[in-house]
Write a structure and sequence with these properties.
Largest sheet: none
Shape: elongated
Distance between the termini: 62 Å
Number of helices: 6
Number of domains: 2
InterPro entries: Homeodomain-like_sf
Radius of gyration: 29 Å
Order of helices and strands: HHHHHH
């Protein structure tokens, strides 16, 4: 959400600013392009320090521990033995790849792939209550 008098400067305009910086002063660039002098200075500084015209946001979040290969390995185990426990999946993963991850990580990875748990319910009939 823009605040104050900010406006979006297109990457093409920023490329133009860095090209013009070879021949003109920042004050002349600001006058010619109708972009604020501060934005011109910041664009030139970004170009000189990073080699890019605009700042690119970093990847958000932490990278996943389990690779797609690891997840497909776990899926294969679940398909082969549908009633396998998470602790058994954890052990098989550790024994085959040497990767030790928490059971919740395995559960979340399988849940993202569409696997769910079957919940056990105990039904008591009226005649047989314990």
């Amino acid at each position: 959400m823009p605040q104050g008098n900010r406006r979006h400067i297109a990457p093409e305009q920023k490329r133009l600013i860095t090209t013009m910086a070879n021949y003109m002063s920042p004050r002349e660039i600001a006058t010619a392009t109708h972009i604020s002098k501060r934005t011109v200075y910041r664009t030139i500084a970004t170009w000189r320090s990073t080699g890019k015209h605009a700042k690119v946001p970093l990847e958000l979040g932490r990278p996943r521990i389990l690779t797609p290969f690891d997840i497909s390995f776990l899926e294969g185990l679940v398909l082969r033995t549908p009633d396998i426990y998470l602790v058994e999946l954890q052990t098989h993963l550790y024994m085959s790849t040497g990767l030790y991850v928490a059971q919740t990580t395995i559960r979340d990875a399988l849940r993202r792939r569409g696997y769910t748990r079957k919940r056990v319910r105990v039904f008591f009939s009226n005649s047989a209550r314990l």
